[in-house]
Structure formats: C-alpha cells, structure tokens
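ok here's the first one, seq then struct tokens
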Amino acid sequence: MQHVTLIGDSVADAIPGDDRAVAILKQGIDLDLEVAACRRVDQESCPDGNVRPPNVVQLAKAMGSKLGANVVVSVGYNDFEDQYAQNIENALAAFEDAGVKHVWWLTLRAAHHPYLNMNDDIEAAATHHPQLSVIDWNVYSRGHPDWFQADGLHLLGPGSEAMAGLIHKTLLDDGVALKPVQVATKALPVARRGRPYAARLGAAQGLAPFKWSLLARAPKGIHLEADGRIIGRPLARPGTYVLNVRVTDSAGSFATRRLTLRIKL
C-alpha cells in the first residue's frame, strides 16, 4: 500500500474523531493523519490553548522522508489572504525537499469572501506545479449545510465522512489507493450428494492475502476454509442452496456475493 499523509487544520481535525470517516479514508492506503487546530501554512500557527502546532512548512521539514510520496493538504482557514499564494509555494518547496512526489490540496469552503481568492491561489499554483492536484471541497460541499457546524466551516459527522470520501475517491481515481476487494467467483461447480467436493473461491483487486467466511451456515457436509477452499462431502438433500460468502483483504476492505450450490444425487 502507498503511504499518504493528510495535513490539516481544525476543519480536517474532525476526521480522526469520526471512526467511520477514518475507515473510509484509510481504505487501500497506509494513512498518517497529521491534523491540528489552528495550523497555518507558513505563518506562525494561532494558539490552540497554550500550544501552537507546527505550520505546514515546519511539519514538512521536521518529518522529512516520513511524509512519504503522497501528501494531502487541507489547511488555510487560519491563514492570511494576502500571503496565502506565497505560503503555498513555500509549502510545495518544503514538500519537494522532503521527497514528496504528489500533493493534493483541498479548496476552502467559501463561507467568507477571502476564501474565494485563496481558492484561486490554490488553482493558480496547480497550473505551474505538475505535482499539485486540486480537490475541490468548496464545490463538492455546496448545498450541504447539514455537514457543517453553525460557522459553516467546521464539520459535523456527515461532513467529516463526506470529506474523507472525497479524498479517498480522488486517491482511488489517481491510482494511489488500492481498489477494494471484489468476489471474482460467479458460479460454483455442481456437487454430488455423498461424494467428495472441492472448489476454490477467487478474489479480484484488493490487497492479498484474503480471508473468506460465510454469512450463514453452509449445507450439511460442506465447509468454507479461510483460504477460499470449499471442501467436504455434501450430505444435504438434492436441491439448490445459497452460499453467502464474504472476502476481506489485508487493507480492511471486504465484499460479499450470493452464490448458489446445486447438489445432485
């Protein structure tokens, strides 16, 4: 799996507090969440209580190669409009020095007018930095006031899950996140009552090794092994039986499929 570091301020800080949002985001990636309230890009961060978190540039310099090749940035709500464009440039330079190969930067939800201009700065930076891609959170979140607290910026549960989903979809589309596992087997061979039976289920995509299980009991005499082998000697009456199978991959994604097993005399 590829390593991805998410750097955020108090808006993205809602994600680690939401188990479902974390589960959505970490599918198929090795995720590092570096989020903190009051973080700025390259100005001294505002105080969160008695603590000022490192800004994005400071964090990049401190982490170095630990950032990995892929970084997602959701920072800007505490920044200064007239300095944001240069701060983005400084952050990209710090990322390059740390060995980062690809940066995704979320636009700001434009609940206040300065954020419109700051979003233009993000878009402008992407036009001359091929390693920078824009994730348009501002457009994606329009028409969803139920995602936000009263300030229209900080996230409620549905908002944190929506942001996580948007980031994950982008990483999936860009080939960074592994595609979730799928059950590849579509049909099972016919079984004969009282005779040895063997079949093997197959998985597609996802991260091996895979673990298989049944969601309901199999016909008498038939067993599904964790490695996907269906074995045994069917003792059930002749007929058609349903096997609801589940496969889970090593990245935590899973899939189910309803298969039919026909038993003959």
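and now the second one, same deal
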Amino acid sequence: MAFLAVIIFFMWSRFLLQMQLTRTFGPMLRIITVMVGDVFKFLAIWSVLLALLASVSSLLFGSLLKYSQFKNVLLNMFGTGLGSYDLSDFAEMESGPELGEVITILAVIINNVVLLNFIIAILADTYGKLSSQSLGLYYDGIISRIPVYEDDSRYGALIVGTPPFNVLSVLMMPVFSCVSDERKLRRINDAFTKLMFAPIALLLTLLFMGFNLVLMPLAYLAAIFRKLTVLRQKLQTPQSLKEDGKLRPTSAVAFDLFVFAVFGLPMLAVS
C-alpha cells in the first residue's frame, strides 16, 4: 500500500505540473510555489519558538505526566499554538496553576496573534507583488518546461506510455540499461515508442471510422438535398443567363446529381 501511495502522490503531482502550463492556473501555481519558500522560512522561525516554549515547559512542569517527555511537550505546544489546550492540566501543580496558565496564554499570543498574522502578511505581500506579473509568470513557466518535455532520442519511450500500457516500460528498463551503443538505443527507443502509441492510435482510428460511418448517411442526404437545390435554381434561371457561357449547363448539374445518388455512399465511405 505504501508503494501505491507513492505512485498516487507522483500522479497527482504530475497533474499539477500539467496545470502549470495553462494560462488560467499556471500563474497561480507559480505564486503558490514562491509562497512555499516563504512558508518554509516561517516554519524555521516557528520551530525555534516551539522548541523554546517546549524546553521552558519541560523544566517548569516536568512533574506532570503530560510534560514528562520532550516529544509530548513539543506536540502539546504545537496544539496550544493552534488553540487546542486545557488549563485544567495545571491544577495538580504544587505551586498552583497560575504559572501554567501564564505560559499557555503566552504561547497562544505568540502563535495565534503574532506569528499567524506575520505569515498572513508575508503571503499577502508575496501575492501582491506577483499577481500583477501573472502573464510573465505564465510565459516563464512555459519556457522553463520546454527542456523537461523535450523527447530523449535514447530513453524517451520509457515515459511516453499511458496506463495501463506504461507497465511495459518497467519490463523494458533492463533492456535499455544493458545497451550502451547510441545507435542501437535510438532504434530500440523508436520501435518501443511506436509500440507504446500503437494501442492508442488503433483505438482513435476505430473511433474516428465509427463516428464517420454514423454520420455518412446524414452527409449523403445533405449532399443530395444541396444538389437538388442547385438543380432547381438552374431550372429557374432565365434562358438569357444560360446562354452567356458562364453557368454550367443544366444537363451537367443533373448528371452530377445522378452520379452522386448512385455512387455517393461508396465515395463517402472511401473518403
């Protein structure tokens, strides 16, 4: 299950990378990427403050079972910073619960009031700077992805497959790893690429042919109706216009209608 979880993670990550190439979501994802860097910087500061509060709490309240291990104290301070705390934990203190309540209130103020607003201000500032550059961020993302999506003439076939045909790539990895000659690698890669795309090409071809066969009778009737309309207009054309030599003879239009009525379906099928 862990292996499947890793595969699912990379599949959705790949989906996000594809969204990054769109003009609608690309700039937003680029802004989020920059924000992730700001968040990591903030987490570095926050971790130091959590370690500070946890160390102080361990020394002051080490007699309590909940504060007897540093790992539990660290998690407790993390929960306190998010608003999950219980002041009744300090009721068993011999010196009274006042000191514990002060430390808890101090932790809540530092985390919820100071640091939370601090990270919101950082992210808002980053968004304000980059939102006006959304078009530039989009083109920057496109340009940065061009080398990533270039096909490798030696090993590109290993990544072009779609599920479930990409399972064949795992079987072909030993073959690619054992071949060192460049020309052989290119030939193997070219043949394997065609093999990976063959099922998709066959499926799309069958769908295309089936769709055209369904529409063929409609196209035949539409063409017959159009030719009848042209013939009726030809019959209604004054004789003076017919004799100037610029219009097709009525007999040619009628012959065209007859030929298409007889051979139209085979012609459309071949087309």
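notes on #2: The mean pLDDT is 82. Residues 167-270 form one domain.
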